[in-house]
């Protein structure tokens, strides 16, 4: 897999490049925001390891550039910024995982393997239930063959529910699916997103089991 490492710490970057190559990745290195932007503009990568605190700007700009290109690139943010707000900002803009420094290399490589497997398995896959279809490659949602535009959080909730058709997911399980870590969020965040998502789905598509969770029934 082709990987772009965006990291301004020279010693850390050198160590990671050696280790990543041993893991089988083809690695390019960008020490600045300008370098990273040039790489993203002119090339395509399977994975990006992204530091946010770059000497000439905020690494979040790289995520924005990737979003504009609209191609499938997995992004793992690797940064000293570990606040909940920074995590939410990164994930909302399309990052797939978030690992705070300092970190254990074994954990980084394990997370990269998980992300890589997920993207490989999902490249041409679709989820469908009744007259709702979710294309995991294009992130497109169709209801009765009509394209429905969903915000990222609603899309991730729908994906989690459709991946577990017939299985009830609790609020805490959906929080973990949505944000990809176990931080406590607003007490009614899931309820609000489900409320908005339900309006865009067919009647009765998402069922609420009070005090237990939410479920999408398997297609008959």
Number of strands: 13
Overall pLDDT, averaged? 85
Alpha carbon gyration radius: 19 Å
Biggest beta-sheet profile: 5 strands, parallel
If strands are numbered along the chain, what order do they take across the biggest sheet?
A: 2-1-3-6-7
Q: Which key terms come to mind for this protein?
A:
220 residues, alpha/beta, Rossmann fold, Arc Repressor Mutant, subunit A, 2 domains, 5-stranded parallel beta sheet, 4-stranded antiparallel beta sheet, 8 helices, 13 strands, 42% helix, elongated
Question: Can you describe what's shown?
Answer:
By secondary structure, this protein is α/β, with parallel strands linked by helices. The protein folds into 2 domains: 2-122, 3-Layer(aba) Sandwich (Rossmann fold); 127-216, Arc Repressor Mutant, subunit A, CATH 1.10.10.10. Helix content is 42%, strand content 23%. The protein has 8 helices and 13 strands. It has a 5-stranded parallel sheet, sandwiched between helices. Strands 8-9-10-11 form a 4-stranded antiparallel sheet, covered by helices on one side. The protein has a two-stranded antiparallel ribbon with strand order 4-5. A hairpin with a 4-residue loop joins strand 9 (132-135) and strand 10 (140-143). Helix 6 crosses helix 7 (171-179) and helix 6 crosses helix 8 (189-200). The longest helix is centred in the middle third of the chain and has 18 residues, at 105-122. The chain is elongated. The chain starts with a strand and ends with a strand.
